[in-house]
Write a structure and sequence with these properties.
- By secondary structure, this protein is an alpha/beta fold.
- It has one domain: 3-Layer(aba) Sandwich (Rossmann fold), CATH 3.40.50.720.
- Helices cover 48% and strands 15% of the residues.
- The chain contains 9 helices and 7 strands.
- The chain has a 7-stranded parallel beta sheet with strand order 3-2-1-4-5-6-7, with helices on both faces.
- Helix 4 packs parallel to helix 6.
- The N and C termini lie far apart (48 Å).
Length: 242
């Protein structure tokens, strides 16, 4: 009898880090369900290149996470891992930040992860195994000017991770968070040169991280070799948050 292929649901799969996660997990033998919000072309490319199954949802909306997980279960029958990677930014100084800027970021970054974790808890508990990785940020550990909403959402993910890890540990389900630092993505590529230089000056390793640097740590945390690691925040930042 052929063993069932391990399946991973990756949210925000069409971003730079998300695509790297899909690539790395596929190469490690996972079947990936690639969530996307609006970039259908990128999702279709992931399907064509890596055999990922695209699933669309606006996870900031109530009920969307439950529907997404239900669609994933209908498609593949089981979910072995969840990687909450979806997120947005709406940067600005707090005194000028609007309620819309705040709630857009909190809903997309924190509520979506909460709701998706909640949706996978029951099926993972029934199968008595699972892996959850939440994508926080070095900003959630250190803070950053003009990113109070983003920092709050990423710090909230750390609290969510640690609390859920305690709840699910008895069922052999691990829950961990990653805190990427200065990573080479489309989001950081548009920064002014002086901001890039300042960011790099805070990285002891002296280089910008790559999406693959993050993806390889995700793959490790989902592997059976990481079965005794839970409730942790792993910084992938070249020493930035030491």
């Amino acid at each position: 009898m052929t063993e069932k292929k391990k399946t991973a649901l990756v949210t925000g799969a069409t971003g730079d880090i998300g695509q790297a996660i899909v690539k790395t997990l596929t190469e490690a033998g996972w079947q990936v369900l690639a969530h996307y919000h609006a970039n259908q072309k990128a999702a279709d490319d992931l399907a064509q290149t890596y055999g990922a199954l695209p699933l669309q949802a606006d996870l900031s909306q109530p009920g969307a996470a439950s529907d997404l997980v239900a669609a994933a279960l209908e498609a593949v029958g089981h979910i072995d891992a969840l990687v909450n990677n979806a997120g947005v930014t709406r940067d600005g100084m707090l005194m000028k930040m609007t309620d819309e800027d705040y709630f857009t970021v909190m809903n997309a970054n924190l509520y979506s992860a909460f709701a998706t974790c909640r949706a996978v808890c029951r099926p993972m508990m029934r199968q008595r195994r699972g892996r959850i990785v939440n994508m926080s940020s070095v900003v959630g550990l250190m803070g950053n000017a003009a990113q109070s909403n983003y920092a709050a959402s990423k710090a909230g993910l750390i609290g969510l991770t640690k609390s859920l890890a305690r709840e699910l540990a008895p069922r052999n389900i691990t829950v961990n968070a990653l805190a990427p630092g200065y990573i080479d993505t489309k989001m950081t590529a548009i920064l002014p040169d002086e901001v890039k230089a300042k960011n790099l000056s805070h990285v002891p390793m002296g280089r910008v991280g790559t999406p693959a640097d993050v993806a390889h740590v995700v793959a490790f945390l989902l592997d059976d070799k990481a079965a005794y690691i839970t409730g942790q925040v792993l910084s992938v930042d070249g020493g930035m948050a030491m």
